């Protein structure tokens, strides 16, 4: 093996064993943090004065801050790098933030970026002992696919909350285009004043569906977040009855994400 090839190989490995150790530490920290929130932090917050919305706001701000510290921990230890474009446009009243879902920690980034946001999270997290208590205190919405979920999400938007949703419902299969369920579009039409797409790109892919945490790539992972232009849901609501408008909005978003992700692929180094 010549020196040039050897140098490239070493660069591609990119501190592999250190990153494996740091990834294990990150997952351990996340689990311990969830347990600490359940046993210590939220019981203390619950003793502070204030009405129910005040307690909910404190809980969400706490989770957001801890999530962002977790992201910074992963970045400082070399697990990942990231860049974010347009974050200042996130967190407006009645805004629905809709993102694709390539990795397990997408939601950690977005909640960390938007301190008081509500979020539609998968139902299994409500049975997880590390996440059940934080979810109850923050009043995030369980994605159980019911009409009650759609009503709760739309009501949250109409009350002025920011809502984060991943319309795929699960992580994108590597190499496959995102498949958006129509529920996200239906919620936007019923309650959102603004719909803002966020395109997430992960290179190389990691923490995809059914991929164990210890199967890390040979080089450091980079997360890219691009906040797109606002979409007015009422422009689609005027196109016809609710089912037809929902289908048209969902189709528009589907093509939008496919186009933006393909553009990211063409411009990637």
UniProtKB/TrEMBL annotation:
Pathway: Lipid metabolism. The chain crosses the membrane at residues 20-45. Residues 95-203 form the Phospholipid/glycerol acyltransferase domain. Keywords: Acyltransferase, Membrane, Transferase, Transmembrane, Transmembrane helix. The keyword Oxidoreductase does not apply. GO terms for molecular function: 1-acylglycerol-3-phosphate O-acyltransferase activity. GO terms for biological process: phosphatidic acid biosynthetic process. It comes from the Bacteria. PANTHER family: 1-ACYL-SN-GLYCEROL-3-PHOSPHATE ACYLTRANSFERASE, PHOSPHOLIPID_GLYCEROL ACYLTRANSFERASE DOMAIN-CONTAINING PROTEIN. This is 1-acyl-sn-glycerol-3-phosphate acyltransferase.
